[in-house]
Amino acid sequence: MSDTARRKSPTRIQREKREAILEAALDVFSTHGFRGATLDLIADAAGLSKPNLLYYFPSKEEIHRTLIGQLMEIWLAPLRKIDPGGDPVSEICAYVERKLEISRDLPRESRLFANEVLRGAPHVGDMLQGGLKALVDEKAAVIRAWSEAGHLAPVDPHHLIFSIWAATQHYADFDTQVAMVLGPRDATRYEDARAFLLGLYARGLRPLPAR
User: What per-residue confidence (pLDDT) applies to 12?
Assistant: First the structure.
């Protein structure tokens, strides 16, 4: 694809094909991982020939990085919504709830991200060390200020955020394991998880009573 062609606004059909490729690639990467995914598998899943796919994306790496880039926006949106002016316990519990909803609604995206991180983030390390780290540090500073002001129980803000990631993403990344214990996925699984996690964090984060 020439530089001139890339600069032109894509047509509706081109946009649709590009989205079809990304949707197919999401399935392939989340199922097979980066190493197991091939351009042939992605092209077949998208209903395109391999040369047609390569017209839109020059490599498997480019498709993967595009997907991760889109996911990062979804991934960081719930954290951005933490309001420094809000009630601290309510703000953190709302973050837990938003992260759990992503695991429920976007399990393929969660597994794609987990697979990349488990491989050492070779394709998105710059994203993690850039935008993600900056936002986490910003919100950690907010949480630390709440805790130091006595509005939260004493807590390490970074490890609190890590624990929320682990607790909520488990339901997507380890869905098979959860299903083996609890049975097939149904609506009650996430309602039960939501009630448990919100209760756990709310109790653990409430400020200690004054002596």
Answer: 83
